Amino acid sequence: MVVSALTFSCLGALPPASAAEQILVISAKPAPVSELDTPAAVSVIDGDDMRFAAPRVNLSESLNAVPGLQIQNRQNYAQDLQLSVRGFGARSTFGVRGLRIYVDGIPSTMPDGQGQTSNIDINSINSIDVLRGPFSVLYGNASGGVINVSTQTGKAPPSIEASSYYGSSDSWHYGLKASGATAESGHAGNMDYVVSTNRFTTQGYREHSAARKNLANAKLGFQLDEVSKLTLLLNSVDIKADDAGGLTSQEWHDNPRQSPRGEQYNTRKKTRQTQMGLRYERQLSEQDDLSIMAYAGERNTTQYQSIPANIQQIKPAHAGGVIALTRHYQGVDTRWTHQGNVGVPVTFSTGLDYENMTESRKGYENFVLINSTPAYGVKGDLRRNERNTMWNLDPYLQTQWQLTDRLELDAGLRYSSVWFDSHDFYITPKNGDDSGSTRYHKLLPVGAVRYALTDAWNVYLSAGRGFETPTINELSYRPDDKSGLNINLQPATSNTVEIGSKARLGNGLVSLTLFETNTDNEIVSAGNIGGRTSYKNAGKTRRQGTELALDQQFDENWSLKAAWTWLKAEYLTDVCQDTNCNGNRIPGIARNMAYVSYSYAPEQGWYAGSDIRYMGDIMANDQNSAKAPAWTTVGLSSGYKWSFNQIEMDLFGRIDNLFDRHYVGSVIVNEGMNRYYEPAPGRNYGIGLNVTWNWE
Predict the structure, then answer these.
(1) What is the mean pLDDT of the segment spanning 395-400?
(2) Is 536 buried (19+), middle (13-18) or exposed (0-12) by CB count in 10 A?
(3) In three state form, how does the secondary structure of 605-636 look?
(4) What is the pLDDT of residues 147-160, one digit of tens each?
(5) SS (H, E, C) 25-71
(6) Which in 10, 284, 612, 680 has the greatest CB count within 10 A?
(7) Could you tell me the CA-to-CA distances from 567 to 91, 400, 546, 617, 620 in Å, in that order?
(8) How far apart are CA 113 and CA 472, in angstroms?
(9) Helical H runs in 432-560?
C-alpha cells in the first residue's frame, strides 16, 4: 500500500519542493512513501475508505482495521468514544487519555494529556496516521500512541458535495463541503480552500441518549511565493447530548435500553469549542526547511451528573453534581529540518513545542429543594470555584542515518516538562484552601534500527521511554474522599521494546509486530461514583502483545483488510485495597481483537462490502470480578455510483450487527456502584445519498 502523505508531524506537511523529507516522525514526507520503510508500527487510513458507505459520524466506523487500537462507541455522545492504543487510555471514563491526537497539526489533546475526537470532521479527512510503539514518545505527554488527522487540501477544479444519511434511532447526518484552488499549487499568489459543515441528530439507542452535534471545519492555503506557504485552519463544534450512564449486569440483561439514573437526574452535557491555527512553511534552501504552527482555542463544557443530594449536603467539601468548565488553550511549535551528509546521508529535525491551557472550573449542586425535596437536573448553589493552569515546554530532536543501502538508524530525544498550578477561590469555614502546584520533567529517548532483507521485506527493532502525567481531572479528586488536590498522584513512565517485520505481497502489505511495555506508577481508576472518578498509581504493570495486519488489493476493484491483536496487560503489584490483584488483568482492555473486511468497489456501478469484528472479554474492575463478555458482529453494505455531465451520485445502504447480537459496547472501569456496562445497539440500518458537483 503506497501512502500519499505520511505526516506524523504536529506541524503538517512541508512544501512539495522540500529536499529534507526523509525524517521519520517529527518531519513530514509529502512525497509518496511506503509503510514498508517505516521502522515503527504505523497504519495509514485513507479518507475515501473512511467514507465508503458510512454514516461519517464517528471514528469507530472506520478504524477497526488498525491492530493495537481498541475503539468503542459508547452510544453516549456526552462522553465521546472510548479509545486506547495497546491498552493506554482504557481507564478513561470520558474523552481520550494516554495518547496524542492531532488535526492538521493542532493538538486535540490538551497539555495535561486529555483529548477528544468530537472536533474531527470525517467529511474532509484526507488520511489518518496511527502510530503505535516507541516512536510515539517523541510527541511528549500521554504518548501511548499518536493519531494524526490530515484534512484535504483544495484542488482545481472546484467542487461542492452534499451528503446525507438516515439510520436507526432516528439518526440524521447531513453535510455540505466546498473545495477548490485558483490554480495548481506551488505558484505565488495561488489559494486553495476546503470548507465543510455538518449536522448530526439522534434520538439514541437507549433512553435518555438523544444528541445534537454541529461541526464546521475550514482550511485555507495561500502560496506566498515559490518557497513559502501560509495555511489558516478553523474549526468549531457544538454538542448537546443526554447522558444515559452505565448499567449493572442485571439492568443490562433486563433492558439494555433503559437509563434509570439518566431520567431521574436529567444527566446531560453541553460542549462548545472554537479554535484557529496558522501554519507557516518555508524552504530555506535545498537542504533546509522551516515550519511554524501557532494555534489558540476555547472550550466550554457544562455537565450534569447523577449524584444524590444527600451526598452533597453531608460533605461540606463536595464539589457538587454540576461541572462548569471554560478552557482557553494555545501553543506554538517551531521546527527546522536539515538534510546533509557526514560520510553517510543524515537528516535531522529539531524543534521547540510550547502548549498552555488555563481552566476556570466551577461546581454547583445539581438540585434545588422544593418543600425539602430535591428537584434534580437544575443548577443549584456554588460548591467549587478554581482556576487551573497547565503548560509544557518541550525541545526535541530526531535524526535518521542511512548507514548503507539496506541499513538505517533512527534516533530521537525529547525533554518533556509539564507544570500544573491551581488557585482555589471557594474557601469556607468547612472547606479550606485547596490551592496547590506541582511539576513533572522527563527525558524521553527513542531509537530504531531497520534492515531491508529484500526490496520488499524489512525488519526493524526499536525501543523508547514514554511519559504520562495526570490530567487536571485526575488531579482534582482524592481517592480518600478528602478535600484538596490529588497532588500525590505521580506520572507514569513506560519503557517499550518492539520488533517488527513488514513485507509487500503483490499489491498489498502484511506486517507483524511483537512488543513489551513495562510501566512504573501506572495511573488507574481508584473508583467511580456518579460519573466522578478518582485515580491512584498502580505500581508496576506489563503489556505484552502481538499485532498482525494485512491490507491487500487484488485488482482495481477487490480489496481485503484484516487485523488481529493479542494483548496481555496485567498488574505486577497489588493495587486493590481488600483483595490481592497482583497478576490480574488491567480492566478496560480486551486480550484479543480481530477484524476482517472484504469489498468490491469499482469507480461506477454497483459496489458492496462486508466486515466481521471480534472483541474478546473485557474486565470491568481491578478485582476481575466483573467483565463484559466477548462478542462478534457482522456488517453489510451496498450501493450504486453513477455520474452524468458534472454530477456524481452515490446511493447506498448498510446493516450493522446483522445477527442482532446482544452485547456490551464499552465498560466504565471500576464504577463504584457496579454500573460498568454501556450496551451496544442490536441490528441497525441506514441509507445514504452523496451528490457531488464538479466544475470542469
Answers:
(1) 94
(2) buried
(3) EEEEEEEEEEECCEECCCCCCCEECCEEEEEE
(4) 999 999 999 999 99
(5) CCCCECCCEEHHHCCCEEEEEEHHHHCCCCCCCCHHHCCCCCCCEEE
(6) 10
(7) 16, 30, 7, 12, 16
(8) 9
(9) 472-476
| Residue 151 to residue 70: CA distance in whole angstroms | 23
Quick check: 24 pLDDT over 60?
no
To the question of pTM greater than 0.85 for the whole model, the response is yes
Three-state DSSP at 485 gives coil
C-alpha cell at 73: 462507541
Sign of CA dihedral 181, 186, 190, 196: positive
Annotate 407-466 with three-state secondary structure: EEEEEEEEEEEEEEEEEECCCECCECCCCEEEEEEEEEEEEEEEEEEECCEEEEEEEEEE
- What dihedral do alpha carbons 427, 321, 588, 619 form, nearest 10°? 110
Query: For 34-44, how does the pLDDT look when each residue is reduced to its tens digit (9 = 90+)?
Result: 588 889 999 99
Is 257 within 8 Å of 205 (Cβ atoms)? yes
Cell numbers linked to 340:
546533509
DSSP codes joined into one string, 514-548: EEEEEEES-EEEEEEETTEEEEEE--EEEEEEEEE
Name the band, by pLDDT with cuts 50, 70 and 90, for residue 138: confident
| 516 vs 502: CA distance, rounded Å | 19
Averaged pLDDT, 121-136: 93
Instruction: Cell numbers for 361, please give them.
Output: 472550573
Among candidates 56, 371, 380, 25, which has minimal Cα distance to 217?
56
pLDDT of residue 9: 37
Rounded to whole angstroms, the Cα distance separating 11 from 279 reads 7
User: d(Cα 558, Cα 556) in Å, to the nearest integer?
Assistant: 6
Specify burial of residue 132 (Cβ count, 10 A radius: 0-12, 13-18, 19+).
buried
> Is the distance from CB of 322 to CB of 366 less than 8 angstroms?
yes
45-82 pLDDT, tens digit per residue, is 999 999 999 999 999 999 999 999 999 888 889 888 88
N- to C-terminal Cα distance for the chain?
Answer: 30
Question: Residue 116 and residue 96: Cα distance in Å, rounded?
Answer: 5
Could you tell me what percent of the chain has a pLDDT over 70?
Answer: 93
Residue 184 is predicted with a pLDDT of 65
**pLDDT tens, position by position, 241-285:** 999 999 999 999 999 999 999 999 999 999 999 999 999 999 999
Q: Is 41 left (phi over 0), alpha (psi -120 to 50) or beta?
A: beta
Tell me the C-alpha distance between 528 and 588, whole Å. Answer: 14
Question: What residue type is 550 in one-letter code?
Answer: L
3-state secondary structure of 260: helix
Pairing assessment for the beta strands 100-103 and 145-151 based on DSSP bridges: parallel
pLDDT exceeds 90 at position 528: no
pLDDT of residue 482: 66
Q: What CA–CA distance (Å, rounded) separates 116 from 73?
A: 13
Strand 125-132 with 41-46, pairing: antiparallel
pLDDT band at 17 (very low <50, low <70, confident <90, very high): very low
> 157: cis peptide before it, omega within 30°?
yes
- The CA distance from 193 to 160, in Å, is 12
Identity at 85, one-letter amino acid code:
V
What would you report as the CA-atom Rg of the chain, rounded to the nearest whole angstrom? 25
Q: Nearest CA to 500 among 99, 135, 84?
A: 135
Neighbours of 348 (CB within 10 A): 20
Give φ, ψ of 134 to 5 degrees.
-60, -40
Find, among 609, 547, 443, the residue nearest to 70 by Cα.
547
